[in-house]
Protein: DNA polymerase III subunit delta'
Organism: Lederbergia citrea
Amino acid sequence: MSMTWQDLEQEQPFAAKMLKNSIEKKRVAHAYLFEGDHGTGKRAASMLMAETLFCEKLINNYIPCGSCINCKRIKTGNHPDVHVVQPDGLSIKIEQIRSLRTEFSKSGVESNKKLYIIIDAEKMTISAANSLLKFLEEPNSETMAFLVTDQSQRILPTILSRCQSIAFKSLPPELFIKKLQDNGVNHVKAPLIAAITNNLQEGLELDSDDWFAQARKIVLKLYEVLKQNPLYAMTSLQDEWTSHFKEKAQLDMGLNLLLLIYKDVLYVQLGKEGQLVYPDQLDRFKGDALQSSSRRLSEQMTAILEAKRKLNANINPQLLMEQLVLNLQGGPSFV
């Protein structure tokens, strides 16, 4: 399910207005930066813009028809003049940008118009970013760029200065929770999904994802056994956690889910029960809140954030989780 202009206008009215005006006035910039939190629809909006700019039968001067050959090929990722660059592993490498520049030095296959979208643009290596900068410094009037990022502060200021920045805002959690519930997500899962994404399509996919449902159960179980002895927690890691959270992105999700549990317990201490993302665990968390200090909860949340940082630094995942278990139980750090 791809984004429509109606979706964009509802979810990101400011971004929609800016982009629509630029199309209708024929003042589309040669480079845009779509910035905002994860799940706010930036990537989908960049694909919508690609369809709009290449559509052969625009409706009302800005709505792509969805049925012409260009719209269909962009939807399936097969348009010869629309290129999407994504991280290769942990980063976007200079070879990827050089390949893009080589491709764009040729004439367009079907017209002179060419468009490229760089996903997670903050993950460009320094050499890749400098290579892209040369590209942006010599803009071709028929070449357009969309840089998509969750962390614009990590992008070179010289690149930022050559892009028109458009901010994508997160919906307030309570509004997004209601939106999820209106689309069939139950009241127990909706707050947790809203804490992970602000994108409706992504939220609905999480709701129907068996892996995510199982992840929630495993994380809650680990939290429970962490209150017992270290052996139980290590056994739980071996039996369930390691086999479920296999890939780095999955492990990062698991750590996020775990962090949100400790945040909920802190919310109970602060009398903010209405903001829990695990509302069905309120009774359990009430007991835990009485037995733990806010300082200890803060230390535990810091330990999880540190584990997330180390995960991105390529520490061995098994060692990382074993250390985290000890830290959450108040044991020593050995990495």
